[in-house]
Queue: 3 jobs
Job 1
Amino acid sequence: MKEERGKEKERLEREIRLLKEEIARFKKIFIPVYEIELSIGEADVLKKKVLEYIKEHPGVLTSEILERFEDYPPPIILKILYELKREGKVKSRNV
């Protein structure tokens, strides 16, 4: 019983740590961002790259996707993720 509680405590602590990391990354998103435009061709290529990355890494976290594509502003990547979800190409879940 004590061992089970210890494992549960470790699991919850790990989840809390991951959530804190994600919150820190998301805070960067809310820093004022200048309007950024990608050409239609660039946006399509980036969208395909993001989708390919997700397919290669099932269960990947949003924060990991943002980190992988850190050369692009987070709002652009989040918009792509929203579009992919709306199109039914990816699913999201709470962790």
Job 2
Amino acid sequence: MIFPPPPPPPVTSKAQPAYYRLRDVVRITALSRSTIYRRIAEGRFPAPVHLGGKASGWAREALQCWIEDPACYTAPTPPQAAAGRRLPMAGAQP
């Protein structure tokens, strides 16, 4: 009886993800969740990116910048409109 050759092994991807979720960031940095968010507020850790719905993640490049020099890392400052300030509505009184 002749058997067919075994199927090839599954291809596993060694590619790095584009974004890391909080669980991965905690594991990679060895910082707690509260420490990560405190450092984000202080501008000493990269802020997460909104991925859609309730999901957010950290860009691989931003984390790499922090990993290379965590003591001297400073987050880039966003423009004021993007920093959470609301623009006044047209015709609204100040």
Job 3
Amino acid sequence: MGVTLGRGPSLQVVAHPSDIFAIAVNPAYAISAGGDSSIQVWSLHEPGHPLVHKFENAHPLGVHHLATNKEGGFVASAGFDGTVNIWDLGSLSLVKQIASLSYL
């Protein structure tokens, strides 16, 4: 399935090779995550909405939820490994990991 951008041909973009479980949107980015363990950050301001960054192996068993803060500078991810990670979208880095006691 393609996405039509304006009056041109359809554009086929494969965001994740497996299921997408979560999407979050802030003023600058659309963020997707799924069973491939990655989190992908897509620009909302650039033509064609290109991939800005891919956090590889964000959670080793896959990502099931995402949430952004009101200002849009951070995204939190919850993984099937029982952790919650806080990502800084400005520096594109992991700033905090919170482990579930049931997985320790």
